[in-house]
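Cross-check.
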Amino acid sequence: MKKVWKNSCLIGSALVLLAGCYGGEGGQAGGTAETASTQTNLPPAENELFIFTAWPAYFVKEEIFEQQVGQFIKKKFPDIKIKHVAWDNPGRRYEDLIAAGTIPDIVFDEVRRNTYRQVRRFKMEYDMTEMIKKYNFDTSKLNPADMQHSINTSDGKLYSLPFNSNEWVLLYNKDIFDKFGVDYPKDGMTWDEAYELAKKLTRQDGDITYKGFQMNPAHYLRFNQLSEPGLDPNENKASMVTDNWKKIADNIRRFYDIPGNQLVKTNDFAKEKIAMIVDSMENVTKIVNGNKKLNFDMSSVPVFPEAPKSKFQPNTNGMFITNQSTKKDLAFQVIAYLLSPEVQIEMSKQGVMSPLLDPAVQQAYGQLVPEWRGKRVQSLFALNSAKPPLRKPGLTFINENTDMVWKLISTESKDSLTALRMTNDSMNKGIEETIKIQKEGGISEYE
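Predicted model, tokenized:
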């Protein structure tokens, strides 16, 4: 059976601190750093901490890892020698490390999917619950949506703590709004209001066709704001045929039914012919860097009336301690310090979305990023992250095939319910095949 190594979409611009599910009462995030000695006095061989970064992908550049991780560890723990290896295709993957007999102490990776198909596949999972209790680490300081990703993938345990996440934002071209005399988007705008703006701003002006709104439909569906599950919460089956899923699908498809507003890549926003896009902060940063002349600003993403405070589910990157590590206490102390307000404020200044629910961290966001000066970056924090839906531990995981829903709608002209039913059938087949393959010791292409 085919092995799939391509990591799911990621991200690296942002973490938002909200509330978690584990931890002692009254503790502080990063509390372990307060109790840990910064002088370890360990023999050299025991003083090396091996960190493997699979995601965020940009940690392949050592200077970025040093800026966002390495420098903080060295400052707090000067006796620690850091060995850092980044996922590099090919040559430095999980299986390469195992073949060489070099298991990392800490792994950075995407939580929602790669906990299953990477960390757990190679039997590296380690439950951090006892460490959290031991060091009185307060997970209630963390974004509950980020924490939910970790809980969902940990069989009722806790294999990771969030490091950062990719959040979505609405970016708009002020020149287009001004040209047609339309008011700018506001935080808390509903999808119905966004649709009316898109209709007004999708128009032909001389030789130029302006599009009113664009978003990647697969992202919109996968990280939906209503927390509608693609996999049944209690059984090994799909759950794509519900009233909420139809509402979600119908909502996005109407935007592309507007004459002249056919789907294009959100990167085309840089061409100054699209009024609004919703995209991840990682990609938005690339877009505005691609055209320094863009006259833009941002607002929170549109919302559904029944979830007026919910933005999309985050795509969370986590920090894992490996089961094979002989330095678990030291590894946890480092992870806890990286999640302290002291470090998170500095990372937030760099435009990294923090998992901490700390107003000081949020206020610091983007202060060192030239692109965000004078922009409404606090719109990122106007809404709460939708929580990933809970799922009973022990059920089979496959990657929800939301791409199929949109493909059936856009290329085969299926109505929303038919597209959802066909996707549901496909996912059920994937679950059955995955269960069979896993029993035989294989790796399913659906994971």
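The radius of gyration is 22 Å. Residues 416-439 form the longest helix (24 residues). Passed to J.P. for a second look.
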